[in-house]
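Hi F.,

I've been meaning to write this up properly since the lab meeting, where we talked about keeping a consistent format for the predictions we share between groups. The idea is simple: the sequence comes first, exactly as it goes in, then the structure tokens exactly as they come out, then a line or two of notes. No screenshots and no reformatting. I'm using this chain as the first example so we have something concrete to point to.
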Amino acid sequence: MKKQKLFTTILASVVLLVLSAPTVFAAIGFNTNPATVNIYDFRKLLVNIINWLLGFAAVAATAIIIVGGYNWLASGGNSERIENGKKIITGGIIGLVMIILAAVLVNTIIAVLGK
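Output, unedited:
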């Protein structure tokens, strides 16, 4: 019964997503006419994909930091687990800084090339 309910929920979500796509494209000004698509539309699509991937990576890095904090808190005083939690947090922070720098670099390049 649970699998059927999950399947129905996923199916309904996909149908709603597909039906709302033209409205979303119209709202953001995305050109869906193949006869008038130009390189600007491709560049806009590429920028949106890159920004989405960077946002997803930032969420993943934040989740890694949270996992490291949980490991540290749940260590129970075990110095090995504390060090493991600290390493995870440090790696997550380094990853988050790299993602932020990548976002700045990509958006700077896009701004320079866009003019």
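Notes:
Residues 79-114 form the longest helix (36 residues).
The chain has three helices and no strands.

If this format works for you, I'll send the rest the same way.

G.
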